[in-house]
Amino acid sequence: MNRFTRYASIGLTALWLSGCSGLFKPAKLPPAPPMPEMQQTELPANSIDPDWWTLFNDPVLNDLQSQMASGNLNMQLLAARVRQAQATLASAQSSFMPTASVNTGVSRAQAAGGSPANAVSVTAPVSWEWDVWGRLDATATAAQAGVQASREDLALARLSAQAGMVQTYVAIRTAEQQAAVLQQALTAYERALQLTRYRYEAGVVSASDVTQAQLQVSSTQAQLIDVNSSRTQLLHSVDVLLGQAPGQLQLPTAAALPQVPELPEVVAGSLLQRRPDVRAAQQRVLSAQANAGAAQAAFFPSLSFTATAGYSNNSLGNLFSASNLLWSMGPSLALNLLDGGKRKAVEAEALAALDAAGIAYKQTVLQGLQEVQDNLVAAYQLQLQAQAQAQALQAAQRNVAITEAQYAAGTVSYLNVVTAQTAALSAERSLLDMQSRRVLAVTQLMKNLAGRL
């Protein structure tokens, strides 16, 4: 066979394999589950500033967010995983490139009936795999989707940490407001207890009135201790968000809760598209699809081209002379015939992983949709509740004034006063709780708005 015939045969074989590659590539896998169809209000990509917490107009909160951006350990962990995924992608993409190495060897051998002989060789083989069936491409595609998923995980960690800081900060300020209300009530109750004791000593009231007043003071003291303890624990949570040991943060008290920013009118679907967890789940479906394709491609032979050049001789002295030069080149086809069912098991594992990724994506979408809708409802309903609770507080405060006047006139017992005061205190604390919950609901919505489209 002459040289032209050999090269023509190689070329025809390559063309045949190229044509077969379209025939034997794995069947197209089902697409990722679509987003729920729902009427949406379009939002511009820059509808919320990336530093969305600044809309609360709280300098202390802004400073805490700045510290957390560089110190939060969870964000550092996810950033490291992004770098890990990028390295995995680089490794997968390197498979498209030729590989080269240098081999040296010294041996002594003897054939039957012959004399012992030495062999010294230095060779430099170069090989390249032709990705006929798309196995290498599928592996790289899976790695690329893994990088995108890890980036979305980092974005989710960043948004979650930012929202967590806002929520914890609001809880701290709420605890401070609760403590201020309790302290004000405690001061009034202690004064009332002292006056009741004077009246009891004067024979004006019974011992029961003193007991009721003492009970009110002690109960309020216990509530105040509990609120202050909660604030301390919340400060520890901020320390952890900042990446430092609990107990280091010293935060001055504030006069009020952060302002609630105005939000654009949106519906759940438009917010859902911005969630990094949904995007990450989509990328994991794509990665699982590609891994399944790579597992199916492993059933077909691999085609490689190898070229080797070097020197070989029976001694080292004149090894690199022209007469000792050797070379070889040509294609090779390798097919694994028996593997004990390993490839079938790998394929089954990959297809099961694809099913799991699709289910996880749907679950993420449903959970995200529920969270967004819940917070949309909460932000609106809590505003109405707070308005109604403010009216209830005013009524409770008027009732306290009326009851205290009746007690002074001797028409009601001190128990009536305690009941009215307790109701007013409870109403004021409930109002603070509703205002805080509304801020938290708005925070969750802003977290979704801050995600990119």
Fold and architecture overview:
With 453 residues, this protein is an alpha+beta fold. It has 2 domains: 355 residues, Outer membrane efflux proteins (OEP) (Up-down Bundle); 63 residues, Outer membrane efflux proteins (OEP) (Single Sheet), CATH 2.20.200.10. The protein contains 9 helices and 5 strands, in the order H-H-H-E-E-E-H-H-H-H-E-E-H-H. Strands 1, 2, 3, 4 and 5 form a 5-stranded antiparallel β-sheet that branches. Strand 2 and strand 3 form a beta hairpin. Helix 2 crosses helix 4, helix 4 runs antiparallel to helix 9 and helix 5 packs parallel to helix 9. It starts with a helix and ends with a helix.
Order of helices and strands: HHHEEEHHHHEEHH
Which shape, going by the Cα principal axes? elongated
Return residue spans where pLDDT drops below 50 for at least 5 consecutive residues.
7-33, 35-46
Main β-sheet description: 5 strands, antiparallel
Give the N-to-C terminal Cα separation. Answer: 62 Å
Count of separate DSSP helical elements? 9
